[in-house]
Design brief:
The protein is of the alpha/beta class. The chain has a single domain, classed as TIM Barrel (Alpha-Beta Barrel). 37% of the residues lie in helices and 11% in strands. Strands 1, 2, 3, 4, 5, 6, 7 and 8 form an eight-stranded parallel beta sheet that branches. Strand 5, helix 8 (236-239) and strand 6 form a beta-alpha-beta unit. Helix 3 packs parallel to helix 6 (156-174), helix 6 crosses helix 7 (191-197) and helix 9 runs parallel beside helix 10. The longest helix has 20 residues, at 83-102. The radius of gyration is 19 Å and the shape is globular. The termini are far apart. Bound molecules: zinc ion. Zinc ion binds at residues 20-21, 28, 62, 64, 140, 142.
Length: 350
């Protein structure tokens, strides 16, 4: 029984891995928010007792659009409307959440339909449970899954409306009233207007859905408020800081490869072990780049269904990474867990 389940899971996961975030064709876009939620009073320290820089750290989770979305667009090859597939991903989410919690962290979990709508329809409380345990719920917005192919010519209002619709499902499934962070929508030059209109104020994880790569101008550890979006070719406004900008952009860290955001899915990445080795190097590089007196951030993304390296111990690789690499840095005061909104609040408080 378990073996059968595992086998079908394996194929589901293979399908999944060839889809969504990993595929050049798939892209994710977030909406914009009009009324940025009030910046919370939480302000994390930016220096430790020794007066040296602190690196805020988190793990984000992307939940991809698998199956027909709430807007009626087909997406992915697997389907969250199939209970076994949905449940398998729920199990992965719980396992990852437990691992992160055991190390003192809380994830930023980014969801979209049909996962959210299936959760609502089936009465599954996974998102509400994780929110109650302190994980941040956020939006992962694959624009083509919610707006159809070629969404870039659509108006800010059209984007905003659909982003709001997706946010409402997250709120309903998660029992939360405030969603601030999104990922996706990366090639829409008016993305930040749309996201602001939809009530969002924190963004990250920019990569081109066409090339799965991240422009090196976006790499680093210090957040900023972009003056505008990008079409994927011109990053002038995106990389320009606007003190009055509504959105805080969190770079992912001091990575040195343009494909870091997708390398786990590439055939030549060397599998989970090599990927986490690269994360370790990038975390250390980010620590070196961190400056006292500034807000410094580092984060990476996981997906339910992608831990496949060791069938006997699929999550061992992330457990070891947290134990061997992250925990000692947290203990020494160099690294501190913070959800993405907490990172943005720390930046806004500076
Ligand atoms: Zn995605």
């Amino acid at each position: 029984m378990r073996t059968l389940k595992r086998t079908s899971l394996f194929f589901a996961v293979l399908l999944f891995a060839s889809l969504a975030c990993g595929l050049p064709a798939a892209s994710a876009t977030p909406p914009s928010a009009e009324t940025p939620p009030a910046e919370a009073a939480t302000s994390l320290p930016v220096e430790n007792e020794a007066g040296s820089a602190i690196l805020l750290f988190d793990i984000g989770m992307h939940i991809e659009p698998m199956g027909e979305t709430a807007q009626g667009f087909p997406s992915g090859k697997s389907d969250y409307h199939k209970p076994q597939f949905f449940e398998r991903h729920v199990e992965d989410m719980l396992t990852l959440a437990q691992i992160v919690e055991a190390h003192g962290g809380r994830m930023t979990i980014q969801a979209q339909s049909p996962f959210t709508t299936v959760a609502i329809e089936s009465g599954n409380t996974i998102l509400a449970d994780l929110a109650a345990r302190g994980h941040e719920l956020a939006l992962h917005f694959h624009e083509d899954a919610h707006l159809g192919k070629n969404p870039e010519p659509l108006s800010v209002q059209q984007w905003c409306d659909v982003m709001k619709e997706e946010i409402s499902y997250i709120m309903q499934a998660g029992g939360v009233s405030d969603i601030r962070y999104w990922s996706g929508g990366n090639l829409y030059p008016n993305l930040y207007e749309a996201a602001e209109c939809a009530g969002l104020d924190v963004n990250s994880d920019w990569k081109s859905p066409a090339t799965q790569s991240t422009d090196m101008s976006l790499i680093g550890v210090n957040p900023w408020r972009p003056a505008g979006g990008t079409d994927g070719a011109d990053f002038t406004l995106f990389t320009q800081h606007d003190p009055n900008g509504a959105i805080v952009f969190l770079p992912e860290g001091q990575y040195d490869k343009e494909n870091f955001a997708s390398m786990r899915r590439s055939d030549d990445a060397g599998g989970d072990e090599a990927y986490f080795e690269y994360l370790k190097e990038s975390l250390y590089a980010s620590l070196s780049a961190a400056q006292a007196g500034k807000v410094n951030v580092f984060h990476f993304t996981v997906h339910p269904g992608e831990f496949l390296g060791d069938p006997q111990d699929p999550f061992g690789v992330i457990e070891r990474f947290l134990t061997e690499v992250v925990d000692p840095l947290v203990a020494s005061g160099q690294v501190q867990w913070a959800t993405y909104s907490q990172m943005a609040d720390a930046y806004a408080a500076k």
